[in-house]
Amino acid sequence: MARHSYLCPIRWSDMDVYGIVNNVSYLRYLEEARVDLIFRMAPNDGDAFFRDGSVVVEHRIRYRRQLVHRHEPVEIEMWVSDLQSATVAIDYVVRDGATVYATASTVMAPFDYRAGRPRRLTDEEIRFFEKYLEQTPAAD
Questions:
Q1: Counting CB atoms within 10 angstroms of each CB, which of 2, 3, 95, 104 has the fewest?
Q2: Contact residues for 105 (Cβ-Cβ < 8 A; gap 6+)
Q3: Mind listing the pLDDT tens digit for each residue in 26-82?
Q4: How far apart are CA 112 and CA 119, in angstroms?
Q5: Cβ contact 118:112 at 8 Å
Q6: What residues contact residue 109 under an 8 Å CB cut-off, 6+ apart?
Q7: How far apart are CA 11 and CA 99, in angstroms?
């Protein structure tokens, strides 16, 4: 199956007082990468998954090595590790070549904001996520 790769810039403001990338910045990195992936669902129309509504249900991040500011972006490789009728799990590896800085997972659910309740994935959403389905969790 396919994996998606996103080159994420490291900003000076991402570092904490100890000179390493702050843990909250990792959540922003994952969000940037996830949006880059999901916007491929409907590139001309805006994204159906976000347009129709979705929420983050869970984040898990395991920090492997300290990441410091540099001019080169860090690669975030991602894939769908689980696909259910009402949730999708996206796993990530934050890396620079063989050096892994973090592994992570995000579970998202489609959500109908007008009705104020969860909804099921549409057939279009399922077909899109199936292209990236690889039921291998990011290394623990």
A1: 2
A2: 58, 59, 60, 81, 89, 90, 91, 92, 137, 138
A3: 999 999 999 899 887 765 555 566 667 889 999 999 999 999 999 999 999 999 999
A4: 6
A5: yes
A6: 54, 55, 57, 86, 87, 88, 118
A7: 19
